[in-house]
Amino acid sequence: MVVSEIKSPLNVSETPGGCSSSSVHRKELSVFFIESDNRRLALGRGYTGGTTPVNIHGKPIANLSKTGGWIAALFIFGNEMAERMAYFGLSVNMVAFMFYVMHRPFESSSNAVNNFLGISQASSVLGGFLADAYLGRYWTIAIFTTMYLVGLIGITLGASLKMFVPDQSNCDQLSLLLGNCQPAKSWQMLYLYTVLYITGFGAAGIRPCVSSFGADQFDEKSKDYKSHLDRFFNFFYLSVTLGAIIAFTLVVYVQMEHGWGMAFGTLAIAMAISNALFFAGTPLYRHRLPGGSPLTRVAQVLFIGLYEVPGSKSAINGSRKIPHTGDFRWLDKAALQLKEDGLEPSPWKLCTVTQVEEVKILIRLIPIPACTIMLSLVLTEYLTLSVQQAYTLNTHIQHLKLPVTCMPVFPGLSIFLILSLYYSVFVPITRRITGNPHGASQLQRVGIGLAVSIISVAWAGLFENYRRHYAIQHGFEFNFLTQMPDLTAYWLLIQYCLIGIAEVFCIVGLLEFLYEEAPDAMKSIGSAYAALAGGLGCFAATILNNIVKAATKNSDGNSWLSQNINTGRFDCLYWLLTLLSLLNFCVFLWSAHRYKYRAIETEEDKSRASL
């Protein structure tokens, strides 16, 4: 094993008389930062320096020109498009399915779907861990996308077979509102939740790996690597948007014309086709060997408890290594070597500098995705609140009546438009202002997205205040499922389009930021941060709704979130979200200002390290 050592300023000295206490003797020994060219891992598994592409058998690729690139990425795009199509198809249809078919109260149906969305995103950490530690990104996607398909087939069967749903006879709209329809049996709801959560956990292995696996297809040694990566994440999110648009249009149309079974079956068929395409592209993919358990390496750094000796400010040069930084110096003790430890110490007694720096990077990244939780919370609220608003509004475009469940398609259309114009309009304009060749840095894009989301939710509060007063003044106060013919639903497009713009800048910038800043052997964990933030936003929406309902409930049983939107105060909730978003934006500005980008070694650094 080749070992390069940088001595600390501490020198060896002996106490008078040649004796001392054990603790003093240890602190006076020569101390080293140690970094091995062959990084070690506990449990007997080695992990690679990180970035050499291999084929599916783990062998080096002889001719890189025959693999990877945009062609390979296209096969991966298809898998993500189908996953997002299923995700949004379930999010927009499952609340209505539980209410109209399973006869569950709207409130509990909404919370159940929010929890499903939250679990499907928050559990992405598990998928990212398995990909980085043991399976690799390809096999993680392959296993979990199959699980996703099984869950969708189960949902399709549940909606198609009468035995899985309660009796639908004598259940008109009035009976639904009064709660007089036959409720679903406990075993029927158990079956539905089981297949729903199988689908959710299937997403856990897809979401953190697909973007990273797609980015792996590009040669980081190429001079155009940064440009390719920038465009990849934009096109990647474009595929996400296309999946959402199909879910909000085609799937809704199929449901209205052919029923729930066919609608969910469409999602299952799309996932099956995408799986086939993903596996068909196997010979083209470039792979990264899994790096061993990230949690083990983190635990080794945090809990080995070596001597209380301060670390030296030393940069460790060399290929595939992370230079030492001065942040979180309390972690540096894990890489302090005493002579008595020998040249082959246990990884539970001594960590490499790269290992320590991995933990530092993971800690340093946390505030940025954490600030996007608020955006996810707003998006989750829009999925339910805006649809309830649309039920009271006129959704006609001349002689064409647009289904209410299609309304969320408009953020997708705005995203599609912004991504189409991004390089031709936004980048040239902002390049002149910022001097950044890509128009805006990743953190600047995240900040732009958060700022636009504040404008979106503030407008939503203004319009909802107007809509509510209009309903009361024109006699619709208690007819909350009756459309007001003279008030168009297309006023909602303003908040929808603004939140779509916010999503483009924030999420695309965040994904690119996390991929580039995450350690080499933890790219999937880095991508999982974004999905985890999205999941926490869904859970936060449920928690916030419960708090608001409990805090604002009056003697009549009404609250801000009353089932009758005209007697509730959705506008007050939107104002609360505006205030929280503004506070969150201030926290983001502070976090972004303090963030230190990961140091990148130059070829000069590497050549100097080899001397």
TrEMBL record:
- Membrane-spanning residues: 85-106, 112-131, 138-159, 190-210, 231-254, 260-280, 361-382, 402-425, 446-463, 489-515, 527-548, 573-592
Which keywords does the record carry? Membrane, Transmembrane, Transmembrane helix
Q: Which GO cellular component does the record give, naming just one?
A: membrane
The record's subcellular location field reads: Membrane
Report which superkingdom the organism of origin falls in: Eukaryota
Q: How does it sit in the membrane?
A: Multi-pass membrane protein
Q: Which InterPro entries match?
A: MFS_trans_sf, POT_fam, PTR2_symporter_CS
Where would one find the signal peptide in this protein?
A: none
Keyword Cytoplasm: yes or no?
A: no
The Gene Ontology biological process terms listed for this entry are: oligopeptide transport
Return one GO MF term: transmembrane transporter activity
Protein's UniProt keywords contain Transmembrane: yes
Indicate the family of this protein: Belongs to the major facilitator superfamily. Proton-dependent oligopeptide transporter (POT/PTR) (TC 2.A.17) family.
What PANTHER family is this protein classified in?
A: OLIGOPEPTIDE TRANSPORTER-RELATED
Q: What is this protein called?
A: Major facilitator superfamily protein
Species assigned in the record: Brassica carinata
Tell me the classification of the organism that encodes this protein.
Eukaryota, Viridiplantae, Streptophyta, Embryophyta, Tracheophyta
